[in-house]
Amino acid sequence: MSSQRNAPPAAAGPGRGPELRADCASCFGLCCVALPFTASADFAADKRAGEPCGNLGEDFGCGIHGELREKGYPGCTVFDCFGAGQRVSRETFGGRDWRGSPGEARRMYAAFPVMRQLHELLWYLTEALGRPEARRLRRELRAALNGIERLAGGDADALAGLDVAPHRQEAGVLLGRVSELVRGGVPGRGRDHRGADLAGARLGGARLRGATLRGALLIGADLSGADLRTADLLGADLRGADLGGADLTGALFLTQPQVTAARGTSATRLPASLTRPPHW
After folding, report:
1. What is the arithmetic mean of pLDDT over 173-181?
2. Taking residues 186-215, what's their average pLDDT?
3. How many other CB atoms are found less than 10 A from the CB of residue 103?
4. Closest Cα to residue 52, out of 27, 31, 23?
5. Distances (CA, A) of 163 to 6, 118, 147, 150, 154
6. Which of 171, 33, 167, 48 has the alpha carbon at shortest distance from 108?
7. Quick one: angle between helices 138-152 and 165-184, nearest 10?
8. Mean pLDDT, residues 263-274
9. How does residue 185 score in pLDDT terms, banded at 50, 70 and 90?
10. Taking a C-beta distance cutoff of 8 angstroms, is the pair 119, 83 a contact?
11. What's residue 51's pLDDT?
12. Which one of 31, 78, 82, 85 is least enclosed by Cβ atoms within 10 Å?
Protein backbone atom coordinates (compact mmCIF):
# COMPACT_ATOMS: atom_id res chain seq x y z
CA MET A 1 0.00 0.00 0.00
CA SER A 2 3.01 2.23 0.34
CA SER A 3 3.83 4.77 -2.34
CA GLN A 4 7.21 5.56 -3.80
CA ARG A 5 9.84 6.74 -1.34
CA ASN A 6 10.48 9.90 -3.32
CA ALA A 7 6.81 10.83 -3.57
CA PRO A 8 6.19 14.33 -2.15
CA PRO A 9 3.42 14.99 0.34
CA ALA A 10 0.07 15.54 -1.35
CA ALA A 11 -0.96 19.16 -1.62
CA ALA A 12 -3.03 20.14 1.36
CA GLY A 13 -6.60 21.20 0.69
CA PRO A 14 -8.43 24.01 2.46
CA GLY A 15 -8.07 23.67 6.21
CA ARG A 16 -5.96 20.51 6.09
CA GLY A 17 -2.25 20.63 6.62
CA PRO A 18 0.25 18.05 5.39
CA GLU A 19 0.05 16.25 8.74
CA LEU A 20 -3.31 14.81 7.62
CA ARG A 21 -1.98 13.83 4.19
CA ALA A 22 -0.07 10.60 3.62
CA ASP A 23 3.62 11.26 3.12
CA CYS A 24 4.95 7.82 2.24
CA ALA A 25 8.53 9.11 2.00
CA SER A 26 8.38 9.84 5.74
CA CYS A 27 6.90 6.46 6.68
CA PHE A 28 8.44 3.01 7.01
CA GLY A 29 5.81 1.24 4.89
CA LEU A 30 3.62 0.51 7.90
CA CYS A 31 0.47 -0.03 5.86
CA CYS A 32 2.37 -2.60 3.77
CA VAL A 33 3.29 -4.60 6.87
CA ALA A 34 0.82 -4.02 9.69
CA LEU A 35 -2.39 -4.60 7.75
CA PRO A 36 -3.62 -7.93 6.31
CA PHE A 37 -5.26 -8.49 2.94
CA THR A 38 -6.89 -11.43 1.19
CA ALA A 39 -6.48 -12.52 -2.41
CA SER A 40 -9.45 -11.00 -4.23
CA ALA A 41 -10.36 -8.50 -6.91
CA ASP A 42 -8.54 -5.91 -4.77
CA PHE A 43 -5.36 -7.85 -3.98
CA ALA A 44 -3.47 -10.40 -6.05
CA ALA A 45 -2.26 -12.39 -3.03
CA ASP A 46 -2.89 -13.14 0.64
CA LYS A 47 -0.91 -11.32 3.31
CA ARG A 48 -1.11 -11.72 7.07
CA ALA A 49 -0.96 -8.83 9.51
CA GLY A 50 2.65 -8.18 10.45
CA GLU A 51 3.97 -9.78 7.27
CA PRO A 52 5.67 -7.45 4.77
CA CYS A 53 4.04 -7.27 1.36
CA GLY A 54 6.12 -9.03 -1.30
CA ASN A 55 6.25 -5.80 -3.28
CA LEU A 56 7.82 -3.78 -0.45
CA GLY A 57 11.41 -2.78 -1.13
CA GLU A 58 14.37 -2.41 1.19
CA ASP A 59 13.82 1.35 1.07
CA PHE A 60 10.24 0.85 2.38
CA GLY A 61 8.85 1.87 -1.03
CA CYS A 62 6.48 -0.08 -3.27
CA GLY A 63 8.22 -1.79 -6.16
CA ILE A 64 5.11 -1.69 -8.35
CA HIS A 65 3.68 1.66 -7.26
CA GLY A 66 3.10 2.84 -10.82
CA GLU A 67 1.43 -0.43 -11.84
CA LEU A 68 -0.66 -1.38 -8.83
CA ARG A 69 -3.90 -1.69 -10.76
CA GLU A 70 -2.28 -3.54 -13.64
CA LYS A 71 -0.56 -5.96 -11.23
CA GLY A 72 -3.80 -6.78 -9.39
CA TYR A 73 -3.53 -4.46 -6.37
CA PRO A 74 -6.24 -1.81 -6.87
CA GLY A 75 -7.03 -2.07 -3.16
CA CYS A 76 -3.72 -0.38 -2.41
CA THR A 77 -4.61 2.61 -4.57
CA VAL A 78 -7.71 3.44 -2.54
CA PHE A 79 -6.08 3.22 0.88
CA ASP A 80 -5.30 6.44 2.72
CA CYS A 81 -3.75 6.60 6.19
CA PHE A 82 -4.57 10.33 6.60
CA GLY A 83 -0.98 10.91 7.68
CA ALA A 84 -0.99 8.23 10.40
CA GLY A 85 1.95 6.36 8.89
CA GLN A 86 4.45 9.15 9.10
CA ARG A 87 3.23 10.18 12.56
CA VAL A 88 3.72 6.70 14.02
CA SER A 89 7.07 6.37 12.23
CA ARG A 90 8.50 9.76 13.09
CA GLU A 91 6.71 10.86 16.25
CA THR A 92 5.43 7.87 18.19
CA PHE A 93 8.59 5.84 17.55
CA GLY A 94 11.01 8.71 16.98
CA GLY A 95 12.25 7.53 13.59
CA ARG A 96 12.86 3.91 14.58
CA ASP A 97 11.67 1.40 11.96
CA TRP A 98 10.46 -2.17 12.30
CA ARG A 99 13.48 -3.61 10.51
CA GLY A 100 16.04 -1.83 12.66
CA SER A 101 14.04 -2.31 15.87
CA PRO A 102 12.38 -5.74 15.47
CA GLY A 103 11.64 -5.90 19.18
CA GLU A 104 9.24 -2.97 18.81
CA ALA A 105 7.64 -4.09 15.55
CA ARG A 106 4.49 -5.50 17.16
CA ARG A 107 3.94 -2.26 19.08
CA MET A 108 4.28 -0.31 15.83
CA TYR A 109 1.79 -2.57 14.06
CA ALA A 110 -0.69 -2.20 16.94
CA ALA A 111 -0.38 1.58 17.10
CA PHE A 112 -0.72 2.26 13.39
CA PRO A 113 -4.39 1.26 12.75
CA VAL A 114 -5.50 3.15 15.87
CA MET A 115 -3.63 6.25 14.75
CA ARG A 116 -5.21 5.92 11.34
CA GLN A 117 -8.70 6.03 12.87
CA LEU A 118 -7.79 9.05 14.98
CA HIS A 119 -6.38 10.92 11.99
CA GLU A 120 -9.51 10.19 9.98
CA LEU A 121 -11.55 11.80 12.76
CA LEU A 122 -9.17 14.78 12.72
CA TRP A 123 -9.79 15.07 8.96
CA TYR A 124 -13.57 15.25 9.45
CA LEU A 125 -13.41 17.63 12.40
CA THR A 126 -11.01 19.93 10.57
CA GLU A 127 -13.40 20.07 7.62
CA ALA A 128 -16.30 20.82 9.95
CA LEU A 129 -14.36 23.68 11.55
CA GLY A 130 -13.90 25.25 8.12
CA ARG A 131 -17.62 25.30 7.34
CA PRO A 132 -18.93 28.84 7.87
CA GLU A 133 -22.45 27.52 8.46
CA ALA A 134 -21.17 25.72 11.58
CA ARG A 135 -19.67 28.76 13.27
CA ARG A 136 -21.96 28.36 16.30
CA LEU A 137 -20.42 24.93 16.92
CA ARG A 138 -16.79 25.96 16.58
CA ARG A 139 -16.07 25.86 20.29
CA GLU A 140 -17.37 22.29 20.54
CA LEU A 141 -15.60 21.28 17.34
CA ARG A 142 -12.32 22.75 18.53
CA ALA A 143 -12.64 20.96 21.86
CA ALA A 144 -13.38 17.67 20.09
CA LEU A 145 -10.46 18.14 17.71
CA ASN A 146 -8.08 18.96 20.57
CA GLY A 147 -9.27 15.89 22.45
CA ILE A 148 -8.58 13.59 19.52
CA GLU A 149 -5.21 15.26 18.99
CA ARG A 150 -4.27 14.55 22.61
CA LEU A 151 -5.13 10.88 22.12
CA ALA A 152 -3.06 10.76 18.93
CA GLY A 153 -0.11 12.20 20.85
CA GLY A 154 -0.09 9.32 23.31
CA ASP A 155 2.65 6.71 23.47
CA ALA A 156 2.52 3.39 21.63
CA ASP A 157 1.01 1.43 24.51
CA ALA A 158 -1.71 4.04 25.08
CA LEU A 159 -2.57 3.97 21.38
CA ALA A 160 -2.66 0.17 21.20
CA GLY A 161 -4.99 -0.01 24.20
CA LEU A 162 -7.33 2.75 23.04
CA ASP A 163 -10.96 1.97 22.19
CA VAL A 164 -11.70 4.46 19.41
CA ALA A 165 -15.38 3.52 19.09
CA PRO A 166 -16.81 5.87 21.76
CA HIS A 167 -14.72 8.76 20.44
CA ARG A 168 -15.92 8.04 16.92
CA GLN A 169 -19.53 7.94 18.12
CA GLU A 170 -19.18 11.23 19.98
CA ALA A 171 -17.55 12.92 16.99
CA GLY A 172 -20.21 11.45 14.70
CA VAL A 173 -23.00 13.13 16.66
CA LEU A 174 -21.23 16.48 16.45
CA LEU A 175 -20.54 16.05 12.73
CA GLY A 176 -24.23 15.23 12.26
CA ARG A 177 -25.14 18.59 13.81
CA VAL A 178 -22.72 20.28 11.43
CA SER A 179 -24.34 18.45 8.53
CA GLU A 180 -27.78 19.68 9.55
CA LEU A 181 -26.58 23.27 9.71
CA VAL A 182 -24.87 23.11 6.31
CA ARG A 183 -27.64 21.26 4.51
CA GLY A 184 -30.33 23.30 6.24
CA GLY A 185 -29.49 26.23 3.99
CA VAL A 186 -30.06 24.23 0.80
CA PRO A 187 -33.41 25.04 -0.83
CA GLY A 188 -35.50 21.88 -1.19
CA ARG A 189 -32.66 19.77 0.14
CA GLY A 190 -32.60 16.11 -0.84
CA ARG A 191 -34.06 13.17 1.00
CA ASP A 192 -32.62 11.24 3.92
CA HIS A 193 -30.90 8.12 2.54
CA ARG A 194 -28.87 7.48 5.68
CA GLY A 195 -27.65 3.86 5.67
CA ALA A 196 -29.78 3.00 2.63
CA ASP A 197 -28.95 0.00 0.43
CA LEU A 198 -28.60 1.66 -2.96
CA ALA A 199 -26.13 -0.81 -4.46
CA GLY A 200 -26.53 -0.78 -8.23
CA ALA A 201 -29.27 1.88 -8.03
CA ARG A 202 -30.05 3.90 -11.14
CA LEU A 203 -29.60 7.45 -9.92
CA GLY A 204 -28.24 9.05 -13.05
CA GLY A 205 -29.09 12.74 -13.08
CA ALA A 206 -30.72 12.48 -9.64
CA ARG A 207 -31.26 15.66 -7.64
CA LEU A 208 -29.47 14.81 -4.44
CA ARG A 209 -28.29 18.27 -3.49
CA GLY A 210 -28.22 18.58 0.29
CA ALA A 211 -29.28 14.94 0.76
CA THR A 212 -27.80 12.77 3.47
CA LEU A 213 -26.22 9.59 2.16
CA ARG A 214 -24.30 8.96 5.33
CA GLY A 215 -23.31 5.29 5.50
CA ALA A 216 -25.29 4.48 2.35
CA LEU A 217 -24.32 1.45 0.27
CA LEU A 218 -23.74 2.81 -3.24
CA ILE A 219 -21.56 0.04 -4.68
CA GLY A 220 -21.89 0.07 -8.46
CA ALA A 221 -24.62 2.72 -8.38
CA ASP A 222 -25.21 4.92 -11.41
CA LEU A 223 -24.72 8.47 -10.16
CA SER A 224 -23.67 9.88 -13.51
CA GLY A 225 -24.70 13.49 -13.86
CA ALA A 226 -26.20 13.49 -10.35
CA ASP A 227 -26.36 16.72 -8.37
CA LEU A 228 -24.58 15.86 -5.12
CA ARG A 229 -23.69 19.38 -4.09
CA THR A 230 -23.51 19.72 -0.31
CA ALA A 231 -24.64 16.11 0.13
CA ASP A 232 -23.48 14.36 3.30
CA LEU A 233 -21.38 11.37 2.16
CA LEU A 234 -19.73 10.44 5.44
CA GLY A 235 -18.96 6.72 5.30
CA ALA A 236 -20.87 6.15 2.04
CA ASP A 237 -19.55 3.13 0.11
CA LEU A 238 -18.85 4.39 -3.42
CA ARG A 239 -16.89 1.41 -4.72
CA GLY A 240 -17.45 1.13 -8.45
CA ALA A 241 -20.09 3.88 -8.44
CA ASP A 242 -20.34 5.85 -11.67
CA LEU A 243 -19.69 9.51 -10.88
CA GLY A 244 -19.20 10.55 -14.49
CA GLY A 245 -20.33 14.18 -14.82
CA ALA A 246 -21.62 14.25 -11.23
CA ASP A 247 -21.31 17.46 -9.24
CA LEU A 248 -19.89 16.88 -5.75
CA THR A 249 -19.00 20.51 -5.12
CA GLY A 250 -19.10 21.18 -1.40
CA ALA A 251 -19.95 17.56 -0.56
CA LEU A 252 -19.69 16.94 3.17
CA PHE A 253 -17.13 14.56 4.63
CA LEU A 254 -16.11 13.03 1.32
CA THR A 255 -12.62 11.50 1.40
CA GLN A 256 -10.02 10.64 -1.19
CA PRO A 257 -10.41 6.86 -0.70
CA GLN A 258 -14.14 7.14 -1.49
CA VAL A 259 -13.42 9.09 -4.66
CA THR A 260 -10.61 6.80 -5.76
CA ALA A 261 -12.81 3.73 -5.29
CA ALA A 262 -15.44 5.18 -7.63
CA ARG A 263 -15.41 5.75 -11.39
CA GLY A 264 -15.48 9.27 -12.79
CA THR A 265 -14.60 11.41 -15.76
CA SER A 266 -13.03 14.76 -16.52
CA ALA A 267 -16.52 16.23 -16.18
CA THR A 268 -16.89 15.10 -12.56
CA ARG A 269 -16.72 18.05 -10.18
CA LEU A 270 -14.98 17.42 -6.85
CA PRO A 271 -14.45 19.40 -3.64
CA ALA A 272 -11.29 21.51 -3.77
CA SER A 273 -9.63 19.40 -1.06
CA LEU A 274 -9.65 16.26 -3.23
CA THR A 275 -7.78 15.26 -6.37
CA ARG A 276 -8.98 13.53 -9.52
CA PRO A 277 -7.76 9.90 -9.48
CA PRO A 278 -5.32 9.02 -12.30
CA HIS A 279 -7.44 6.07 -13.47
CA TRP A 280 -10.52 8.21 -14.22
Report:
1. 97
2. 93
3. 7
4. 31
5. 34, 11, 14, 14, 13
6. 33
7. 150
8. 95
9. confident
10. yes
11. 97
12. 78
Measuring CA to CA, which residue among 87, 90, 62 is closest to residue 76? 62
Name residue 227's beta-bridge partners: 207, 247
pLDDT digits (tens, 9 = 90+) for 82-93: 999 999 999 999
Q: How far apart (Å, rounded) are the C-alpha atoms in residues 219 and 270?
A: 19
Q: Is the pLDDT of residue 13 over 50?
A: no
d(CA 44, CA 135): 47
Residue 278 CB neighbours (<10 A): 9
Identify the sign of the CA torsion 182, 175, 211, 233: positive
Give tens-digit pLDDT for 16-49: 666 899 999 999 999 999 999 999 999 999 999 9
User: Please, which residues have CB within 8 angstroms of residue 270's CB and are 6 or more apart in sequence?
Assistant: 248, 249, 254, 259, 276
Which residue type is seen at 70?
E
Q: Torsion-angle region of residue 238: left (phi > 0), alpha (psi -120 to 50) or beta? A: alpha
CA 277 to chain CA mean position, Å: 14
Identify the pLDDT of residue 18: 62
Q: Which amino acid, residue 106?
A: R
Residue type at 148 in one-letter notation: I
Task: Report the DSSP beta bridge partners of residue 34.
Answer: none
